[in-house]
Structure formats: structure tokens, C-alpha cells
Amino acid sequence: MDARAVLNRDFTVGPIDERLYGAFLEHLGRAIYTGIYEPGHPQADENGFRKDVAALVRDLAPPVMRYPGGNFVSAYNWEDGVGPRDQRPTRLDLAWRTKETNQIGVNEFADWCKLVGTEMMMAVNLGSRSLDAARKLLEYCNHPGGSAWSDLRIRHGWKEPHDIRLWCLGNEMDGPWQVGHKTAYEYGRLANETAKAMKGFDKSLELIVCGSSNPHMASYPAWEAEVLDQCYDSVDYVSLHMYFENYEGDTLNFFAKTEEMDRYIATIGSVIDMVQAKKRSRHKVRICFDEWNVWYHARKDDQDRMDRWDWPEAPRLLEDVYNFEDVLQVATILNTMIRRSDVVRIACIAQLVNVIAPIMTEPGGPAWRQTIFWPYYYASRYGRGTALQPVVDVPRYDAEAADDVPYLDLSAVHAADKGELTLFVVNRHPNQTMDLAADLQGFASATLVEHIEMSGHDLQAANTLETPERIGPSTGGASSVEDGVLKAKLPPLSYSVLRLSV
After folding, report:
1. pLDDT attached to residue 132
2. Is 144 in a helix, a strand, or coil?
3. d(CA 132, CA 85)
4. Which of 283-287, 291-295, 391-395, 477-481 has the lowest mean pLDDT?
5. In terms of DSSP bridges, do strands 447-454 and 494-501 run parallel, antiparallel, or are they unpaired?
6. Closest CA to 339 of 386, 372, 292
7. Does the annotation count 108 as an active-site position?
């Protein structure tokens, strides 16, 4: 199968905000406890953080980390997680029917973020609480001292402020499952007043308002229109969430679902434009896609168990074991966001450790990379720069999720400061090799540096505790640059990273 592409140095989407490669950690299952934090583990540091996990996180280099939820945040009292650990209460978490010991709170998590080199994105509870709790948390975290809440932080042992710049105004407030669920009007008004209070403290903060939990909600996209109508000039981003499922076992339809994500982004981008025009505003709201991933492998069983269990602590929950099919899907999700990076400025894979995550741990044992670690790793490492607007000519297919789906999915990033051009390419075809010819216009001196490839695996093959390195990348794929044209043979059902010096 032949595929042609044109990549012109001057045909760009725009600069990519590096926070497009962020991640998410929630007080859910083993994400925190026995995930990033396990005192007594052979790899634990003096603060109880697992050094093996921290090393893997540093490899991924997520620029931003959303915390502490998620559904968890909508009934969370942040005050429970500060102060002497032996005085912190154990609470019942209504979102996941578990016990929360509060041994990790905002201060400890800020320390972990410094350890792994990421910036915290803090979510406030606008479900069971209101703007008053949010403004107190902001003062506690960000004020240097000399006020009641900042002085309390200092007494707790953290002299320097955390200086958190990104704040989420609640979580999935359109969802009837959410503690404190509100109508779009109610939430929009609350978000506006909370935003005003927080920017009264520091007008340079970046605030994220809740959009639709997924594009299948009955209220979508009217939710965004009403919420933004109430708070447009007070906020900076609207959050979107989407998870991908393949319960039917239809691989090509599964892959086609990223076309739904593309339409989701385009639709909400249009809603933003409409509200901006209605407000006659010069302010531009962008999209923060702060929950995305494949999630379905363990979902039904998890729900059955939650319905039966009696408030356990840090249970195994949402621990999807990812396979090679998921590698191709995650790679295509990342490609979609790169191609839409003019409007999607921040994104967070959900989640980072143990809970639907690229990193897994065994309590008292090792940590390892799930299959989806690799496309996230390569996008984060080589996807920073300017996104190009590729023109692709390739055969297409129709599926239930979308029609006219290209068998080739491609994004390209030009890092001018490093003299690099990187192509991220997925061949979705189940049995045909694809001969790609990409015309590199404006890159006359391009030379191939590396062809990284993941191919030839059974779609159901996975990395597990017993076989932690079964699925991984290899180098030396069939590719070359001749007369300004990149030529590559892409095996069926493969993911390739083509790195060029320009």
C-alpha cells in the first residue's frame, strides 16, 4: 500500500505547549499508596517515595501533574492532608468506596513533584465545598507568609510557598455521578466567582473550568456554551475528558474512535469561538484535555467489586493491563493532540502509576513499563517544538465510529532550536505494509538520524510482572532520505518514530 505526505517547513499548526505531555495522579486505588509512595520498600527514599518509580517518571518527563482528582476531589477536604501525620483523619472516599488515610497531602505531593521535575496542577473541590475552601487552599499553598493560612503551612514544615500556577475548578461537574453535581448555569456561576476570588489573589494564575466529561453526554456541547457564558473572561482553559474502549474486539473500529476525539476538540473549539464572539472578548480560552487514555480492560470487574467491598485502603483498582493494540491507539491519540495543539495546550494522560497507567508497581517488588509507556515517552521526548500541518494521501476505511478513516496516522514536529524533525507514524492496516513517501519541503539538508519501531507483536501481548519487557521498541526500521523525500516501509499494525536532522 502506498502513502504520500507533504511536510512543508512553513505549513504549521503552531508552537506546542510542552504541557501537552502532562499526567495525572489521583487518590484512587494504588496510584499514590504503593504507587509513588511506599515507606519500607527497598527503593523508598527518606520521605517514603519509591526511587524506582520516580526514575521512570523522570524518563517520561511530564511537565505538569494534575492532582488530587478526579472524582476523589469532589468530596475532599484538603485540610485533612496537612499537619502532623499522626493527627490526620482517615476518611471514607465516596467516589471509589475506599478509605483515605491522608498520609499524602498537598505538601508531600509538592515535594514529590520537585523530586521528579514536574509542575503541580491543583484541583479544588467545587462539589461538596465552595470558593472559600479554594481561596484558603490557594493562600496556604502560594503565599510566602505573614497570613493565617500561609503561616500554618510554615508551621507544618514548608517554609517556601509551592507557587502552584495551574488550578482546576472542580472535576466533571456535568456528571450525575459527581458528588455535588450541578447544572451548567449553577456550575458556571460558581466557577466564575471562584475564579474571581483566586485571581484577586494573583491575576497571573491559569484556571481551568470543567467541560464535558465525554462527547456522549446528553448535555454536550450545550454544557460548555452555558458554563463559558457565565465565566468566559475569568478562566483560561476548558477541560475535556475521553477514554477509549474496545469491548467489541473490533480493532479498526477501536482505532477509528480517535476521529471522535478530533471532532470533540473541533466542536468545543467552535463553542469557545462562539462565546468569545458573543462576549466581544479579546481573551482566548483554550482546551486542557486533562484526562485521556484507553480504559476498559478491567472496568466491569472493578465496578462489580466496588459494589461489594467494605471500604478497603488502597485496593487494586482500575489496573488495566495494556496490550500492543493499546500502543497503537495511544500513539494515535497523541498524534491527534499534536495536530490540534493550536487549541489543545495542556493534556494529562490518566493516570500515571498503577491506575490505568503506563507505569506499574508491585508492593514490595519491582516497577515496570506498560506497553503504552513507549508512545508517551517518545512524544514527550521528541514532540516539543512546532507542530507541522501534514497533507496525507492514503487509502481509507469506514467504521461504526467514523467514516473515511486514514490507514496512516501521522504527526510531525519541527524543533528548530535542536535542528530536528520528528515524525510519529501509525500504520493501522491489519495486514499490509505501507510504503510512505514524505516530501520534506523546506528541509533540503534533512538526514535520517533514527528509525524507532514497534511492530510484529500479537495485538493482545502485554508487559506484566512476569514478562515486564515483552513489548518494547527497536531501532533500524527500513527508511531513508533521498532527494528531499523521506521513504519508509511501515509494517502492518506498527508504530514508528522517524527522527531527522534538519
Report:
1. 97
2. coil
3. 24
4. 477-481
5. antiparallel
6. 386
7. no
Q: E-strand spans in 74-135?
A: 91-93, 98-100, 119-124
Residue with grid cell 463553542, as numbered in its chain: 271
Cα 17 to Cα 20: distance, rounded to the nearest angstrom? 6
Specify whether 319 is catalytic: no
Rounded to whole angstroms, the Cα distance separating 445 from 326 reads 35
Q: What are phi and psi of 129, to 5 degrees?
A: -125, -165
Phi, psi of 414 (to 5 degrees): -105, 115
- CB-neighbour burial class of residue 126 (10 A; exposed 0-12, middle 13-18, buried 19+): buried
- To the nearest 10°, the Cα dihedral for 71, 76, 82, 85? -80
Contact 487, 479 (CB under 8 A): yes
Residue 417 dihedral angles phi and psi, to the nearest 5°: -65, -25
Q: Which listed residue (259, 291, 325, 453) is catalytic?
A: 291
Residue pair 473/453 in contact (Cβ under 8 Å)? The answer is: yes
The yes-or-no verdict on residue 476 having pLDDT over 90 is no
Strand partners, 481: 486
Q: Which of 138, 136, 133, 111 is nearest to 122 (CA)?
A: 138
Mean pLDDT in the chain? 97
Angle, CA of 259, 261 and 263, to the nearest 5°: 70
The conformation of residue 147, written as its DSSP 8-state character, comes to S
Question: Quick one: cell of 89?
Answer: 483523619
Q: What is the pLDDT of residues 184-207, one digit of tens each?
A: 999 999 999 999 999 999 999 999
B/e letters for 356-380, b = 16+ CB within 10 Å, e = fewer, are bbbbbbeeeeebbbbbbbbbbbbbb
From 26, 100, 139, 172, active-site residue: 172
